[in-house]
Amino acid sequence: MVPVDLAQQFRARADAALERWLPAPSTHPERLHTAIRYAVMGGGKRLRPLLAYASALWLGVAPERVDGIAAALEIVHAYSLVHDDLPALDNDELRRGRPTTHVAFDVATAILVGDALQAHAYLILATDDALGVPEQARRALVLDLAAASGSAGMAGGQAMDMEASGQAVDPDRAEAICWLKTGRLLEAAVLMPCRLRSDPGPGWLEAARRFARAYGLAFQLVDDLLDIEMPAAVSGKPQGSDRRNRKTTLAALLGPQAARRRLEALRAEASGALAPWGAQAGFLRWLCETTLRPPDPA
Q1: CA distance 255 to 238
Q2: What ranges do the domains of the chain cover?
Q3: Could you report the per-residue pLDDT of 97-106, keeping only the tens digit for each?
Q4: In contact, 132 and 65? CB cutoff 8 Å
């Protein structure tokens, strides 16, 4: 199947899984559940689910076994965006080309949306029978997501990002923030499907980690460049949000041209990690090539 068609198919699978797992807006409390669906179902690239399905394809794992993982990853990602956009953090009013959750509803509701979504992701991993794994592997999936999203991962990266606001930051520290804030959850998307096989093999695990490390850093560089160079009509969020919030991003430290060179090197590193698998890792390689290319500035 053509990769772009496969991507559409997997996005549709992820959306269908989210529809199944999210509470209906008519379920009490209706306003909270309406806001939850607004936050999760309002567009987005579904990149983390795509990485999970691509990793499963690489491993030979059936996609229906990955639906719960894809949904849990996207739900955690959505919760992080809702909270990041709040006035106490980034204070952004636009996300994916429409009002952020706290603007569309209110701040208190947005906080509760994030709280509920985080809990719901673990509910999926704890109860999804389609995963088809023993309890030890299910526990490992929960630990993978917790480690990637907690204080040693995404939340910790956000805290470091806030601490660095307006401060002099060297490139190594900026890269560490990138990795925790964005890379760890992307890494989880690649590694979690391995829990669905009893024998993924050490070669695959090492390659998956190498790929995910390079991919996660590169993706944050793409996001940083979009914030610097692209208008809201392209990026879906206000241009210059990082600068307005006094964030010293890796792209800002390096400068746009050096950031693009670093991005090219990381993309080559990620793709190179997959080289021994040839066509077997073709969809994952296609994602690497297509999602790590920011649009050229006008």
Answers
A1: 20
A2: 3-291
A3: 899 999 999 9
A4: yes
pLDDT tier at 137, thresholds 50, 70, 90: very high
User: Which fold is adopted by the domain 3-291?
Assistant: Farnesyl Diphosphate Synthase (1.10.600)
Structure tokens at 21: 């797992």
Average confidence score pLDDT of the chain: 88
DSSP string over 57-89: HHHT--GGGTHHHHHHHHHHHHHHHHHHTSTTT
Per-residue confidence at 237, pLDDT binned at 50, 70, 90?
Answer: low
Asked if residue 51 lies in contact with residue 7, where contact means CB atoms within 8 angstroms, the answer is no
The tokens describing 11, both together, are 């996005």
> Could you tell me how many helices (H) and strands (E) the chain has, helices first?
16, 2
Q: Which helix (H) or strand (E) holds 190?
A: helix 184-191
Residue whose C-alpha is closest to residue 179's, from 197, 201, 161, 200: 161
Whole-model pTM: value is: 0.90
Please tell me the predicted confidence (pLDDT) of residue 243. 54
Compute the radius of gyration of the chain from its Cα atoms.
Answer: 18
Q: Distance from CA of residue 172 to its chain's centroid? A: 22
- Measure the CA–CA gap between 35 and 92, rounded to whole angstroms: 17
- Between CA 264 and CA 218 the distance in angstroms is 8
Cα–Cα distance, 140 to 75 (Å, whole number): 18
Query: Residue 246: left if φ>0, alpha if ψ -120 to 50, beta else—which one?
Result: left
Using DSSP, state whether 95 is helix, strand or coil: strand
The string of pLDDT tens digits covering residues 1-21 is 678 899 999 999 999 999 999
